[in-house]
Amino acid sequence: MTDGYFERAPHSGRPAVIGAIEAGGTKFVCGIGDDNGSIHDSISFPTGRPEETLRRAIDYFSESGVKAIGVGSFGPIDLRPESRTYGFVTTTPKPGWNGFDFLGALRGSFGVPCGWDTDVNAAAYGEAIWGAARGLDSCVYYTIGTGVGIGVYAEGRLLHGLLHPEGGHMRLRRHPDDGFAGVCPYHGDCLEGMASGPALEARWGTKGHELAEDHPAWEMEAHYIAESVASAILLLSPRRVILGGGVMQQQHLLPLIRRKAADILNGYVAAPELAEGLDDYIVAPGLGTQSGLRGALALGIRALERSGEQAAASE
Ligand code: ADP
Ligand code: ZN
Question: Which cofactors are named for this entry (predicted)?
């Protein structure tokens, strides 16, 4: 079964209420929507310790009558359905969250079907269904913010594999003028270590949004993102590349990244999307800052549909 069955038209019956949680390492966004894909209400609060944070989320949904909940979570998380720790946050250094049973806390409170995936896979899913990759059977979604993450939607499904892709931690060819050691506590100079918001700040001593458009920071920033995008194109052959997250608020980055990615590929991948179509191939999120929350909603809708299919199959 692929994940692509949202191609259906919105149904005309009374829509089911669906909960959505975009669980970021910095903040939680919770939304109440429906199975036609609309969000009707949302709240946001800082991510604190897990028990208190989940309590706020559960309180928010408690009177809503949700029929399913979808979660896109910061990670790493356990996505293997057969695993004893399925639904847990795993090796994060975030205080209290290592080994926390996120999905168990939700299921214990609501007893409804729950969808569960990484924050970036959720965002890729939202974009594939309603955003910049609508109608396409593959895309990669980047968030370049406090961390860097890459979600992968391929052949109509979200990619998981061994755990889930961790493309934000890939090492890349260094910029020739760059002596910066990088900020990733695990790898130093991986993509996150070199190009996240905190990396920008550590390297230049100034927050990203305070750096002028002609500052050399941006050419270097574009270099690392383009190195990664070119590798993603070579490895996954996505039909679209979507670049989101706080750092991508810098509008001038996108054309720089496109040009550098094309230079790196050097004409080898012979697709019109990588030549005259580049402006429509490496793009900003179609859902703006809502990709993660709408993606979580889509995960909730899918969980509800799958539970219906299972019920029908066992009748
Ligand atoms: P998070 O990754 O925490 O979910 P964001 O995607 O908003 O949240 O990313 C926050 C990071 O992006 C911070 O490091 C911040 O400095 C950086 N950032 C936010 N806005 C901008 C901007 N306009 N220009 C450059 N960097 C920005
Ligand atoms: Zn790393």
Answer: Mg(2+)
